[in-house]
Design brief:
Radius of gyration: 22 Å
Helix content: over 70%
Order of helices and strands: HHHHHH
Number of helices: 6
Distance between the termini: 33 Å
Shape: flat
Length: 166
């Protein structure tokens, strides 16, 4: 029975590391996109690549949603400090369940409100319109874009080769 418990803990740690390694890459890509690209540029690029609007519109809402959630999380942490809920830096480590509860419940309530506001904003801006959009930003495919694309393709090919070897 004891070895089963130890194996379960090891498996849980392994799964956490596995998913964290996969999500880290996605989070890095998302952070890069949100910092370097405006929503209008992203929508225009997706339109030019003939990506369906059913993918482009949720993606644009997501690009607006992520920075807003970061701001809300920062404000929530400050509020918990002011109210005396979080007494030290180590509160999340000492009381993880309480910290998750105190963070997630208000954050989920705020996320519902923010998503409604972003949906209304998207409708007002005409994102669901079938008319062709006018963009003031000039989009071009540059040499750096080509280099990054080739580097990404090389990394993917390298990973496939490594996985087949081992």
């Amino acid at each position: 029975m004891e070895s089963f418990c130890e194996a379960s803990i090891v498996f849980a740690i392994y799964m956490f590391i596995y998913f964290a390694s996969r999500m880290t890459l996605i989070a890095m890509f998302g952070g890069y996109i949100t910092k370097t690209t405006s929503v209008s540029e992203m929508l225009e690029a997706l339109n030019r690549m003939k990506v369906p609007r059913s993918i482009g519109i949720p993606f644009s809402v997501l690009l607006r949603f992520v920075p807003t959630i970061k701001i809300e999380l920062k404000a929530l942490k400050e509020n918990m400090k002011i109210r005396g809920i979080v007494t030290s830096r180590f509160f999340p480590l000492l009381h993880p369940i309480k910290y998750i509860e105190y963070t997630l419940v208000p954050l989920l309530m705020r996320m519902i409100k923010i998503s409604d506001e972003l949906s209304a904003s998207a409708l007002i801006r005409g994102l669901d319109s079938d008319e062709k959009r006018v963009t003031l930003t000039e989009l071009r495919f540059r040499k750096t874009d080509l280099m990054i694309g080739l580097l990404g393709a090389f990394m993917i090919a390298l990973m496939i080769v490594i996985q087949r070897i081992y």
